[in-house]
Design brief:
Layout: H1 28-39, H2 46-62, H3 67-78, H4 82-93
Length: 97
């Protein structure tokens, strides 16, 4: 059995949105900006981006890793600031503020 990307098939195609971004590898920020634009919303500020990554890290290390994306979803559902959510997550995880 041959896998995509082997010599007989050539490289695997990139994800569908890669063509919109020039077909090249993109950074996390570039991907988030494209995703936000596709959803019709503004991308997170650098401060919120950093806080969301920290929140995901707290959730993933305090529980199973699957808690990370769901914790970020809950922040959006609650409509609270990412930094405030990070403080709450750290309290629940028993981490110092």
């Amino acid at each position: 059995m041959l896998l995509r990307g082997t010599a007989d098939r050539g490289p695997a195609p990139g994800p569908p949105w890669a063509e919109q971004l020039g077909g090249e590898a993109v950074t996390d920020r570039e991907w988030i900006e494209a995703f936000a634009a596709s959803l019709g919303v503004e991308p997170p500020s650098q401060e919120d981006f950093t806080a969301l990554l920290a929140l995901a890290g707290v959730a993933a290390h305090a529980s199973k890793r699957t808690a990370a994306p769901v914790a970020c979803w809950l922040v959006a559902r609650a409509g609270i600031d990412a930094q405030a959510a990070l403080v709450i997550a750290e309290q629940i995880a028993g981490e110092p503020e």
